[in-house]
Design a protein that fits this description.
Keywords: Amino-acid biosynthesis, Aminotransferase, Pyridoxal phosphate, Serine biosynthesis, Transferase. It holds the Pfam family Aminotran_5. Its cofactor is pyridoxal 5'-phosphate. By secondary structure, this protein is α/β, with parallel strands linked by helices. The chain has two domains: about 240 residues, Aspartate Aminotransferase, domain 2, CATH 3.40.640.10; about 100 residues, Aspartate Aminotransferase, domain 1 (Alpha-Beta Complex), CATH 3.90.1150. Helices cover about 35% and strands about 15% of the residues. The chain is built from nine helices and 14 strands. The strands form four sheets. A seven-stranded mixed beta sheet has the order 2-10-9-8-5-3-4, sandwiched between helices. A three-stranded antiparallel beta sheet has the order 11-12-14. A two-stranded parallel ribbon has the order 1-13. α7 packs parallel to α9. Bound molecules: pyridoxal-5'-phosphate. Pyridoxal-5'-phosphate binds next to α3. The site of pyridoxal-5'-phosphate has 11 residues, from α3.
Length: about 375
């Protein structure tokens, strides 16, 4: 680990690969001899236009985006996409289905009801968002404008390990917290969006992959703000207004690094190793540590766990002592409590090994 740094298990914004930070540091004051920082550049300058074009190309290459899909680089994070999806995709059907398997899907569903009817195709709230129901239990409406799901529920630690099959109804995914962690089937989706602050860069932006039949404005609501219009964003190469220039540049560096290390299959391999190590430690602890999520729905990115059945005093002691081992930001989300370790790309395997070593010694000392 670099001097003075800690292992940061934050759910987002989260740890970045050190190599990306170091490259940004090298280029911070004088970007490639331009005499200025990217932070200071006009977004219409030839240097910045090249940065944006390369980022888009690398997104297309790395994620194998079909050539007729639009790649959107958006501001406002994933939360704004909850509204933008509805404003651009609901069309005359005015109703959409939501597979709600956690708190983010729940928020997306709530937003739909502002502009139309968000129908619950499934909702696992009553079992505290710890499962993904089998397809046979989903109530899908063939007349829905789209089906929305959240590929990885960051708070609850629930992840789809497959692309949901919803027939011919357009499929929409919030991939904010497992984007860039494994290859994805872009062509099976009408729209994929992801805030980038977990696995692809700093906060402030979202990326979208949009099927062409939703890029022509034909399903856009009249009240859709220009800022949220997929057509306007796509037609203007994601530069209708000033983009989040510096965030976009850092994402570009992250993408270049992703290519260098071997693309999405590299991150997938790392994610499997890291989450396997942590779940193995939890499951091998004879109940001292417990993960509430059903095994088949467990996330490789966010691992929630309790200690001794949710002993709050012991959990506090765990968090305090973990810090002494440079293991930071392990508290669970404020709404669910307990602990949570987020294992995004920026967290090296050695960081997870340090965590599991600490968990074992903490268990030995506190089991009684
Ligand atoms: N969706 C998921 C799965 C998330 O994890 C988050 C944030 O953590 C959001 C949406 C909201 O993203 P933002 O804060 O960028 O609006």
């Amino acid at each position: 680990m670099a001097d003075g740094r800690v292992y940061n298990f934050s759910a987002g914004p989260s740890a970045m690969p050190l190599e990306v930070l170091e490259e940004v540091q090298r280029e911070m004051v004088n970007y490639k001899g331009s005499g200025m920082s990217v932070m200071e550049m006009s977004h219409r300058s030839k240097e910045f236009m090249a940065i944006a074009a390369e980022a888009e190309k690398n997104l297309r290459d790395i994620f194998a985006v079909p050539s007729d899909y639009k790649v959107l680089m958006l501001q406002g994070g994933a939360t704004l996409q909850f509204s933008s999806v509805v404003l651009n995709m609901l069309g005359s059907k005015s109703k959409a289905d939501y597979l709600v398997t956690g708190q983010w899907g729940e928020k997306a569903h709530k937003e739909c009801n502002k502009y139309g009817t968000g129908q619950l195709a499934c909702n696992t709230k009553s079992s505290k968002f710890t499962t993904i129901p089998a397809k046979a239990e989903w109530k899908l409406d063939p007349e829905a404008a789209f089906v929305h799901y959240c590929a990885n529920e960051t708070v609850n630690g629930v992840e789809f390990s497959y692309t949901p099959d919803v027939g011919s109804v357009p499929l929409v995914a919030d991939m904010s917290s497992n984007f860039c962690s494994k290859p994805i089937e872009v062509g099976k989706h009408a729209y994929i969006y992801a805030g980038i602050q977990k696995n692809l860069g700093p906060a402030g932006m979202a990326v979208g992959f949009l099927r062409p039949d939703f890029a022509d404005g034909s399903k856009e609501m009249k009240i859709c703000p220009t800022y949220c219009s997929f057509k306007t964003t796509g037609d203007n190469g994601s530069m209708y207004n000033t983009p989040a220039c510096f965030t976009l540049y850092v994402m570009g560096e992250y993408l270049k690094y992703t290519k260098k290390v071997g693309g999405l299959s590299y991150w997938a391999e790392q994610s499997d190793k890291k989450s396997g190590l942590l779940y193995g430690t939890i499951d091998g602890s004879d109940g001292f540590y417990q993960c509430p999520v059903e095994k088949s729905a467990r996330s490789r990115m966010n691992v929630p766990f309790t200690i001794k059945g949710g002993d709050e005093a012991l959990e506090k002691k765990f968090l305090d002592e973990a810090k002494k081992h440079k293991l930071y930001t392990l508290a669970g989300h404020r709404s669910v409590g307990g602990c949570r370790a987020s294992l995004y790309n920026g967290m090296p395997l050695e960081g997870v090994a340090a965590l599991t070593d600490f968990m074992k010694s903490f268990m030995d000392e506190n089991r009684k």
